[in-house]
Amino acid sequence: MAQITRDDVAHVASLARLTLTDAELDMFTEQLAKVLDHARDVEALDVADVPPTAHPYPLQNVLRPDEERPCLERDAVLDAAPVVEDGRFRVPPVLGEAP
Amino acid sequence: MSEPYPGTALGIAAAVRSGARRAVEVVEEHLATIAARDGEIHAFNLVTADQARDAALALDRRVAAGEDPGPLTGVPVALKDNLATEGVATTCSSRILEGWRPPYDATVVRRLVDAGAVIVGKTNLDEFAMGSSTENSAFGPTRNPHDTSRVPGGSSGGSAAAVAAGFAPLGVGSDTGGSIRQPAALCGVVGMKPTYGAVSRYGLVAFASSLDQIGPLARTVSDAAALYEVIAGHDPMDATSIPEPVPPVSAGLGEGVAGLRVGLVTELCEAEGIEPDVVARVRQAAEALEHAGAKVDEASVPAAVYGLSAYYLIAPAEASSNLARYDGVRFGLRVDAPTTGEMYDRTRTEGFGAEVKRRIMLGTYALSAGYYDAFYGKAQRVRTLILRDFAAAYEDFDVLLSPTSPSTAFPLGAKTADPLTMYLNDVCTIPSNLAGHPAISVPYGTGDDGLPVGVHVMAPALGEAIMFRVAAALEAAAP
User: Fold this and answer.
1) Beta partners for residue B85, in sequence order
2) ipTM of the predicted structure?
3) Which of A3, B182, B398, B470 is the most exposed place for a label (fewest CB within 10 A)?
4) pTM confidence score
């Protein structure tokens, strides 16, 4: 596996919606490379015939009875939002121009 | 078992339930201790003094009226600040949750209150529970009550320090890779991670959902057991909650270890960075168990050595997904911008600290196209290997022993420059998280520097009862 590059870090930062300064890019590239370097022990293992474990306790199809029950009050939830309008979350324009 | 004394949770509960002490006195004493020393320790992000006083008064009235409010009546509890408390700020020690007051209580909070416990405050943590020293808090570090130039461990460092400093006899933490047990070891208290699914995570702010568990911190094993029993058990609000009743643990605490098979895990005693004085204490603890009638032998869990690498792929991958929800839309911080996309970027860039960004990026990378199979996929297969090796070891042993932490409490700033050095703190605790098994750290003497050492007792899934028995024997034998 190739070493993680500065461009890789810039790419994952943009995927994760984080803006990094040049100094941060340098720092994170070096630090992530070190952690991934440690992970080479795992990368080197031949585990092709070992099934993956996603979850330590095998529960499947957890269902609840299909019954009506109260949920959180809408106003209590909206109270926690940074900006609301007419009972909804308000966000800045999505496509650039204000409506 | 010795009788509970007044300073323990069980001692306080017994006294308040019988009317011998009033809950308000107990709470005032603890609030006074907090006021006197938390300026120096910074265990708490928030002390809920008024609510605690009101709750104590209400409990005293109920006791006076002949009611029994429950097994933790009048016991002050310090809650890690990643547990949702209705109407009370819940920060995860992050700027991004600035101003958030949850509209509901976590299930563990409800269960504590229903058992008569009194919440005294929300404790500091590494931001979003990502760290091993509580230095990654946006609100400044917590200090170790045994030596304030040292860290308390993390990420539940605030709860561990609160218990060690006498701010509360009980603390609640969360443990994704060792975040209850490692700070417990460094602060000289008991800390336990239950079997995955034994305690509801409803209302626990998610970090890595296939690993996170909530558990107790306490000064004694019997207090930790009592707290565990209050918070454990099925909850329909958490789909990962085990639907069967969880086995009780307190009743068997005094049964001793005669005939139990105890394995000392060679790979974890020899893992990278483990200090010789810590291993010496663990070997001494094993000898004490042998003296008490247990059969002690060397055990092998070969895949455990890959746990650290696997964990630092799996946990960040899950975190990168869980933390996508912090986008400035529904709760917490919003940094305004002309468009929604830029608002996301600015909010997350200003709201998250460096360690959280590091893990989000590491996880995004491990999950990204072209790397998924090499990193995340492989780490999940290593997880299977660890489960298999544990299963093989538990054919020969009832419990396994190791150090909890490679060293005693280290100085503030000693490991902040190099994240990998910090990650190595979790080398002994991580395998239990990857396997979903219970594990507990019990104080056992000190290292060469005079600071507490923790012995780590691991057990198979739902093996809490035997694990607690061994912990009680270690506590009784501790120097």
Assistant:
1) B88
2) 0.94
3) A3
4) 0.97
